Amino acid sequence: MEEIRISGWSELHETLFRDSWNEELRIHRSNYAFRGRPLAEEDLTTSLARLGGDTASIERPLLRQFRKYAARGDVPVDSTWNWLALAQHHGLPTRLLDWTYSPYVALHFATARARAFDRDGAVWMVDYVRAHALAPKELRQQLEREAANVFTTEMIGAVASDFAEFDKLGDDFVVFVEPPSFDDRIVNQYALFSLTSQPDVSLDRWLQGHPELTRKLVIPAELKWEIRDKLDQANITERVLFPGLDGLSRWLARYYAPRR
Fold first, then answer.
1. Over pLDDT 90: what percentage of the chain?
2. CB under 8 Å to 84, separation ≥6 — which residues?
3. Would you say residue 190 lies in a domain?
4. 210: exposed, middle or buried (Cβ count in 10 Å: 0-12, 13-18, 19+)
5. pTM of the complete model
6. What pLDDT is attached to residue 137?
7. What's the pLDDT tens digit per position in 179-233?
8. 37 vs 72, which has greater pLDDT?
9. Domain for residue 62, yes or no?
10. Residue 197: inside a domain
């Protein structure tokens, strides 16, 4: 894995957008998914793995109970993958991990926690196009049929209707999935999820086996305020990313808090 300690705003932009030029389309369009974290030492452990215990045995009951008590109209189509995406979106422990297409959204999450401004943050970058080239044949064929380079929940469902069928596709792979637009948060955060081949697969370990797919940009603590100020001026804030009064309150509380 390529790990880069960023020295300034200009280098940060150059690194985030490196290799984004698509010669075939004649536009700049990155193949990377981005994930920002306020602490550089944080790994890519899923919420299901952090829950502990036998993840394979608790994953199904967790989602089953979520589906049981959630409103019937909460998902556009009744499928395992739509419910899983909705559950992740609302904080249920799952094998999914949050990512974004937007490097600026990732930078927001790397600099939104004021209490972590004295410690280095990080932005993870994973080339999802090259990751999908390593996926099982059935999934690669589905991408080809749809002329796509990232999955939707419907595309996953066309190959595997549930966990049992998905887990049988292969032992060690990762795909990236766009969730349905459940609400404005999903849309504004330009969100997508990573989905591992098994509930206990470690994304960190998988990426260590494929270092050519990954960059980790370390954001020094002394650079965080500059990034945060410029993101605020660019309107990349809680007010936009979390539409509603809760996001508005979070933005105002951070924006007007005294600097320490």
1. 78
2. 63, 94, 96, 153
3. yes
4. middle
5. 0.94
6. 96
7. 999 889 999 999 999 999 988 878 888 999 999 999 999 999 999 999 999 999 9
8. 37
9. no
10. yes
Q: Quick count: other Cβ atoms within 10 Å of Cβ 112?
A: 21
- When divided into structural domains, the chain yields a total of 1
Q: What is the domain range of residue 126? A: 2-41+92-255
Mean pLDDT of all residues in 69-93: 90
Q: Is residue 79 part of a domain?
A: no
210 within 8 A of 134, measured Cβ to Cβ = yes
Place of tokens 């933005």: 251
Q: What CA–CA distance (Å, rounded) separates 156 from 170?
A: 14
Higher pLDDT residue, 22 or 165? 165
Q: Which of 194, 160, 184 is nearest to 243 (CA)?
A: 184
Average pLDDT, the chain: 93
pLDDT given at position 75: 83
Which residue bears the tokens 């064929």?
141
DSSP annotation string for the chain: -EEEE--SHHHHHHHHTTT-EETTTTEE---EEEEEESSTT-----HHHHH-S-HHHHHHHHHHHHHHHS-GGGSSS--HHHHHHHHHHTT---SEEEEES-HHHHHHHHH--GGGTTS-EEEEEEEHHHHHTTS-HHHHHHHHHHT-SSEEHHHHHHH-SSHHHHHTS-SS-EEEEEPP--SHHHHHTTEEEEEESSTT--HHHHHHT-GGGEEEEEE-HHHHHHHHHHHHHTT-SHHHHSTTHHHHHHHHHHHTSPP-
Q: Are 1 and 207 in contact (CB under 8 A)?
A: yes
